[in-house]
Recover the amino acids of this structure.
């Protein structure tokens, strides 16, 4: 298994697109509360019939805040993964070490960017919004899985950042969205694009070492990780329903609360799981790993993607 990517080229690209947190969130940044942060094509909030436009906008903001936290959350394990891969190359390929350390450093930067954004959000949003908080524990569980499975889920997540930006912000109606949130997604993707190439180099390297049995076990672990992620996304959706109730200052009826949870969970499932499982590049890269790789992805799509 050979990719057309090289560590040296990735370092060069990474240096070219690199940004600073202060470039994106300079001193004095205030969030634009009059516009949606995320497009309806990602959130699906427009279809929740019983919410009025002001309530939909609040739920959109709650979702944007949860989105940035979810990325900071999953990137906790990715930092650990990149460090492990850098360490494995420590006494051999120093170009690889540099590329992989940049990878780790950029992920810490992304976490700090999203955390800083979360602070700005919570400072000015009128009511508290719950978000997942046990990132370290979840990272430990993910990193205990097979190295190939961890790389698969990382490649999957890093590729979807591109889809979130391209599909959401380069479509009609995107002009109405908050430009700051769009900028965060654009810059996140530009660095993630380099990470995805590193994932692929590492994935093919370890798949060659693991052989067919190792790759088959990795698909089982990948399925387990997606199932755990799905459960975390449901927890986030439940928190969102409570956050919305606090923000609009009224209790939601049980049926309304259930509808909000279902809609939010569905949106997160699509953004974080479905978009990866249906990503054309992901499908093509993974097909190289095993004869039944495409079948395994289709089976996972049947579990996680509505209408698959
Ligand atoms: Fe990232
Ligand atoms: Fe990344």
């Amino acid at each position: 298994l050979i990719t057309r990517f090289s560590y040296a080229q990735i370092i060069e690209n990474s240096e070219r697109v690199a940004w600073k947190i202060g470039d994106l969130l300079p001193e004095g940044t205030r969030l634009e509360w009059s516009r949606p942060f995320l497009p309806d094509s990602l959130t699906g909030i427009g279809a929740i019939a019983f919410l009025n436009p002001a309530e939909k906008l609040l739920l959109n903001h709650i979702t944007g805040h949860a989105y940035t936290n979810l990325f900071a959350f999953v990137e906790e394990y990715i930092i650990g993964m990149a460090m492990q891969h850098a360490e494995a190359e420590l006494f051999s390929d120093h170009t690889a070490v540099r590329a992989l350390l940049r990878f780790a450093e950029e992920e810490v930067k992304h976490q700090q960017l999203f955390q800083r954004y979360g602070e700005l959000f919570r400072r000015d949003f009128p009511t508290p919004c719950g978000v997942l908080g046990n990132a370290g524990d979840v990272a430990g569980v993910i990193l205990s899985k097979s190295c190939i499975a961890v790389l698969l889920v990382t490649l999957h997540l890093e590729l979807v950042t591109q889809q979130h930006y391209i599909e959401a912000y380069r479509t009609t109606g995107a002009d109405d969205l908050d430009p700051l949130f769009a900028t965060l997604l654009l810059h996140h993707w530009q660095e993630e694009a380099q990470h995805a190439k590193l994932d692929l180099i590492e994935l093919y390297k370890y798949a060659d070492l693991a052989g067919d049995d190792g790759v088959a076990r990795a698909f089982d672990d990948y399925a387990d990780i997606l199932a755990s992620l799905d459960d975390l996304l449901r927890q986030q959706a439940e928190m969102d329903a409570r956050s919305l109730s606090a923000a609009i200052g009224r209790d939601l009826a049980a049926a309304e609360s259930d509808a909000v949870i279902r809609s939010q969970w569905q949106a997160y499932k699509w953004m974080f799981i479905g978009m990866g499982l249906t990503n054309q590049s992901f499908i093509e890269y993974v097909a190289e790993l095993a004869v039944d790789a495409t079948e395994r992805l289709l089976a996972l799509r049947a579990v996680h993607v509505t209408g698959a």
Observations:
- The chain has a mean pLDDT of 95.
- The chain has eleven helices and no strands.
